[in-house]
Amino acid sequence: MCKNILVISTSPRKNGNSELLANEFARGALESGHKVEKISLYDKEIGFCKGCLACQKTLRCVIHDDADTIAQKMRVADTIVFATPIYYYEMCGQMKTMLDRGNPLYSADYSFREVYLLAAAAEEEESTIDGAVHGLNGWLACFPKARLAGTVFGGGVSDAGEIKGHAALLKAYEMGKSV
């Protein structure tokens, strides 16, 4: 069955390590016959949620920027993949802001059932990703039809592109193929 997969790279750096993980996941999913769209946030205009909750009635954000458009793409995706660098043992601010701006989805008839998390960090310990997993699971708790379906962590990488040759790239590719 062909799935509609949305890959959201939240890195503030073009061609950052987490974005390379996103590319490999997307490549695997495409090779398995799925429809894949990848969005990188580094060049998008995304403001902070104002907490007005108007979106709970209108199903759209009152802030008409790129986050509003991305949230609508999230709503119709079967699978969402978030790729983030880990900063201070947590998802990057760009990812958290995008999750907050996904608030119109809360009362919408959303399609996504599987959500994946891809992460890269300078730290090597597997537990480095735990804060980001906890944060994403907090968001997912508001979407009972969806679940965290898998994670990939590439540790020990700091400079953009340093992840090349890392085992996490193969894992991301294989995860994409198996969606």
Automatic annotation (TrEMBL):
Family annotation (InterPro entries): Flavoprotein-like_sf, FMN_Rdtase-like_dom, ISF_SsuE-like
UniProt protein name: Flavodoxin family protein
Lineage top rank: taxon: Bacteria
Organism name: Massiliimalia timonensis
Gene3D superfamilies referenced in this protein's UniProt entry, alphabetically: 3.40.50.360
A GO molecular-function annotation: oxidoreductase activity
Alphabetically ordered keywords of this record: Flavoprotein, FMN
Taxonomic classification: Bacteria, Bacillati, Bacillota, Clostridia, Eubacteriales
ATP-binding as UniProt keyword: no
The NADPH-dependent FMN reductase-like domain, residue ranges: 4-141
